[in-house]
Amino acid sequence: MFMFELPKNIIVMKVGPHSNMSLNEIIKSKQDEELLHGVHYWGYSGVFCQPKPTKEFCKTCTHHTGIAPSLVLLETKSSYHSSIGEIKSYSPNGTDYYDFKKPVQLQGAEFSFVTKNLRFVEDFPLDRYNVVAGKNDGKPLLEHLRFRINKSFATLNPDVLVYQTSRQIVTAFIADLVDPFAIWLKN
Fold first, then answer.
1. Which stretches does DSSP call E strand in the chain?
2. pLDDT tens readout for residues 110-141
3. Nearest Cα to Cα of residue 100 among 186, 30, 181
4. Residue 105 · residue 29 · CB < 8 Å
5. What is the pLDDT of residues 149-172, one digit of tens each?
6. What angle do CA 103, 173, 61 make, to 5 degrees?
7. Which of 149, 177, 3 is nearest to 76 (CA)?
8. What pairs with residue 152 in β-bridges?
9. Residue 182 in contact with residue 71, Cβ under 8 Å?
């Protein structure tokens, strides 16, 4: 049914228009960013998936499977406009900050995932995943990604058979998380 091997571990994040840019414009800017930097950055804010727990999740997954989690980006139709200026500095550890050497599209973000190899997937089965960590640990991902919840760590549930997967297949963008996996940002 699926044209690709499902990643065992993922970080899922809802994305959409931001800072007066359509999602298609953002995707194009990320592809251009990867040409400049060798990686691209997905900025975010909030309490879910902050850099320290993200790094721990990615390192644990890499240690156990040999493969870092994938970042799965789900389109949301909501719009977000930001008047916050350009982000100029990043920190891999939350303490030591460095300037980006070339332009990065990260307005209004506190943190960023570090990824590469952005690709479109037409049929991603969200109902095959369970939440990892937090108060919803072990619950189906679809029960967790409701209302204002927009990010989560998740793992493939081997007990959900492929033929059972039909409730929630979505289009998504997937990228490979790469070391340092997540960074702190500042203007």
1. 9-15, 40-44, 70-75, 89-91, 98-99, 111-125, 129-131, 151-156, 169-186
2. 999 999 999 988 888 888 899 998 888 888 88
3. 186
4. yes
5. 788 999 999 787 654 544 566 778
6. 90
7. 149
8. 12
9. no
Q: Which has the closest alpha carbon to 58: 84, 25, 66, 126?
A: 66
SS (H, E, C) 124-154: EEHHHEEECCCCCCCCEHHHHCCCCCCEEEE
pTM: 0.87
Any idea what DSSP says for residue 159? T
The predicted structure's pLDDT at residue 11: 95
Tokens 């990892």 found at? 132
What distance in Å separates the CA atoms of residue 27 and residue 51, rounded to the nearest whole number? 22
Half-sphere CA count of 176, side-chain side, radius 13 A: 10
List the structure tokens of 6: 């499902």
For 104, half-sphere exposure in the C-beta direction (CA atoms, 13 angstrom radius) is 27
- CA dist 120 and 130 (Å) reads 22
Say if residues 81 and 10 touch (Cβ distance below 8 Å): no
- Name the token pair of 126: 């969200």
Peptide bond into 69 cis (omega under 30): no
Q: Give me the phi and psi of 76, to 5 degrees please.
A: -115, 145
Q: State residue 71 phi and psi, 5-degree precision.
A: -95, 120
